[in-house]
Every structure is written in C-alpha cells, then in structure tokens.
Amino acid sequence: MTETATLAAASGGQILVQCLQFQGVERVFCVPGESYLAVLDALVDTPEIQVVTCRQEGGAAMMAEADGKLTGNPGVCFVTRGPGATNASAGVHLARQASTPMVLFIGQVGRDARDREAFQEIDYRQMYGGIAKWVAEIDSAGRMAEYVQRAFAVARAGRPGPVVLALPEDMLRETAPPPRLSTPPRPAHPAPDKTDIELLTRLLAESRRPLVICGEARWSEARKRLHAWCESRQLPVAAAFRCQDSFDNDSPLYIGDIGLGINPALRRRVESADLVISLGGRFSEIVTQNYSILQPGRGQRIVYVHPDADELASAPTVALAINASVDKLLGSLVDDGAAAVTAERREWLQGARADYEQWSRPNQIPGPLQYGEIVTWLRDRLDDDAIICNGAGNYTVWVHRFFRYRRADTQLAPISGSMGYGLPAAIAAKLRFPARQVVCFAGDGCLQMTLQELATAYQYGANILLIVVNNGSLGTIRMHQERNYPGRTSATDLQNPDFVALARAYGFHAEAVAETQQFAPAYAAAVNAGKPALLELRLPLEALTPNLKLSDL
Known about the structure:
By secondary structure, the chain is an alpha/beta fold. The protein has 3 domains: about 180 residues, Rossmann fold (3-Layer(aba) Sandwich), CATH 3.40.50; about 170 residues, 3-Layer(aba) Sandwich (Rossmann fold); about 180 residues, 3-Layer(aba) Sandwich (Rossmann fold), CATH 3.40.50.970. Helices cover about 35% and strands about 20% of the residues. The chain is built from 21 helices and 22 strands. The N and C termini lie far apart (about 60 Å).
C-alpha cells in the first residue's frame, strides 16, 4: 500500500475492516455475534482477510494470541459483548503474561443504552484494565482509524501485549467522512548507550561463572547474533519458562530451561553463577523458582535487558539494567577481547551441558507405554521447523524436558499456565504455516477445555497432529493434593469420553496407543491420513512425572 491512503466514506464497520487491511491483517479469529454484525458484513466484501469461525471465544482468543506470537504482529480476535467477552479473557491473560501482541475487538451495547446495565453490557475498561495494555471504547466512527492505528502500535510497543477495543453496535452502523491513513509506524526499539556496553563488557570480563537466560523476547531476528556472541564468549545459555525455542537446543552452549520441574543441577548452577544476564524476559514466579533464586543479597551480579522501562523498574535490584531490545543490544556488542575465555569458564560450560544431556535422556516410567521415548522419537524425526504446541499439566513436563527446539518460532506453550491452549494454538499455527509440521500435546483434562475446536481444525483444513495423554485425572492437581493433603484427594478424577470415537466424529483420523511400539505405525498412519489426526496415549496415573510416581507420595 502507498505511504498514505484515503478511505471511502463508509460505516464504522467498513472503516474498521479497511483499517485492518491497512495494518496488513490477513486473518481474524472470531465467534460471531449480533453486536458487531456491521463488521461481519464488511468482511464479506474483503476476501483478503480470512475469517476463522471458532466454537468458543476462549479458543478464538487463544488462536489470535498464538498467531501474534508466531508472527510478531498483533493477532486479531472479534467476540460479542458480555458472555463472549468474558470467555475471551483467558486469551487476553495469555497474551499479557507471554508479552504477545494482540488486539481484541468486542461488540458493545449501543451508545443510547450505555450505563443502564443493558443486555450483556459490561464496562470493559474495568473488566480488562488489569490485564490489557490499553482498553478503550470507540464512540465515533470518525475516530475509528485513529483508535485502530493506536491499538496496533500499543500492542507492539515496548513489552508487547494485548489491547482491547469495544465497539458500540450503533457506532458500527454510523457513517463517517473518509480519514487519511499514513503507513503504520514501525515500533520503536530502544538501544543501549555506550556506557551500558562498556559496563556489561567489564562485568563479563570479571565473571568466572557467567550464565545467560533468554526470555520471551522476539528472537527470530536476534537469534543469529545471540549464538555468535555466546559462542565467542563460551557462555552457557538457559531458556526461561516455555521460551525454549529462543536458542538452538542442540548447541553445546544450551543447558536447559528454567521452568516447572527444573533440572536440579541447572538450578544449582543458576544459584552459583556469579553473573546472570537476563535477555528480554521477566523475573516471574516460575523463572525465579517461587522467588527463591535470582534475588538480591546472594552476592550475584545480574544484568537485566528489557525493552520496557517499567519492567526494568519493577525487577529486583540488579547490577546493570539496560533499556533496550535484545536485537539492538546484541547488534551493539563487540568482542574486543576484554573477557578472555578461561579454562575455568570452559569447564563451567561443559559441565552445564553434560548435566542437560543427562537430564534429557528418558527414564523408565510405570506401564507399557514409555512417554519419554515417544517424545525423543519425535525429536529425532520431526523437521527442525516443526511447531510444538501444548497447554498445561504434568504431561507437558515430558515435552519440555525431552524435546529439543532447534529453530525460533517452534514452541507455542502458555507462559500463563492456561489449560486448553495447545489445540487452538496448533490450529492457528497450521493456518499460518500450512507447509510446516504442527504437533499438539494435550492432557485429557487440558484438551477438554477447548475440545470443540476440533471442528474448527477440520472445517479449515488445519491438518494438525494432536497427541492426547490420557491418565483419567487432573494429574497436576492430584500431585499437589497428595503432597499437601495425603490420602484426601478430591475433584481430580475424570470420567473421560472415548477420545478416538469423538475425534472420528469430528472428521479426524484417530487411533489409541497403549504400548510404545505401537506409536511409530500409528504416527505413520496419522501423517498419511491427509486430514487432522488424533493419537491417544494411555498412561497410568502412577506416572505423574518422569521422576515421580503417585505411590511415592
């Protein structure tokens, strides 16, 4: 599109759709509602934008979040007022905690009915004020272009995140004169100054046991620079919780992820490191292991790099805070020889890598199906750019521990810990990259949070592979119950459907796998089916995690 464009005089709904085109939006996820019929009507005349009709607003918002995570551009979701908006809140929370750019549009009651508790009316500024970066309601079709451009800019800026715009129903029918739009501005990326680089170089030169942690920054562009810089300094690299695709897991520099079920040896290394360089992430509860590591007073120097100044201000006391994007920082770093690679540092790195390789070898679990062996089998056979998706639950521990992410934008996993995320994320990934392999892992409880989106996958030809790990329980909660209230379990047993029969009813190819040796032929049949496929892995509840049996508790 040219640098500026003049839109034709039109309704608010038509102007909104034209604004989306101007922003480069190619796909929107939605559950239709009467509150934004004018937008749906305008989309009929805009075949350049694919409309994906989801089965529940939570799934729609999760798909938009996953799309934004994969592309770096805001994922777009439309939902109706009231119940639709409340259902979509899970996806907004996901985007907030994962720092994912996203714009949620919500149909709203007409302006003449506002503040009367009209049918399905909610004040979205109050509802979403704590989890969205910006929440606004557009009162005039004449200001539609202004609000949409700002929404996309805010979603991308600093620490990316979700923006919510409410659309009064009568405003969408209102006509307005044509606005003029400029080419959307590129997001501002703060850069480090000379003093930042000099101090970081000095801290690294003085360090004997350095360690880098990669967080939820956008790594597609910065990854090559990160690898080169860490290689020149022989720096061990750990990934923050569910950010494992930030660094090639096959690299001798990679030492594991700081997440749930952390390798105890990695935790000890983080605690004993004399310099920790955190790139683009947050000092969250998971990364700090319940705020017990990476805290002031341990004689440990911490360098914190983040593009959002507010995030830096809210972090623990650090030796150096650098307000910069990771790409700008890594582009400014120069290997000037100030930090020679000592034998001690090489030994530190080699020991950390050996710990990781030992940890990522599957061990035996109870029963005839060895889940860890299946994950490593897939690890050795899937393409390097295959996208691995999951939701939340103990079943994810095997995936995070035994799979190896080799390229950027290959992991879709909820940093917020939201159940039900894996299936919608996989659908969004397959629609965005139809030529790439997309594999979703889901627990039996996790899947049933968004199971109805099987219909969305089939309708839109998203030929994903869905692996359901069925142990008949909400295993994570059962584990915590046994630890804290032994012998007094409650509400965690699941009476599940026949997942194979259910998936076939949705049009999927589906098989059950009860033993390890059955998986390879079942996988081959799924791949050759030419449609979405589900493989059900039947796992005993006794196998709570790779290292923990139920009877141990």
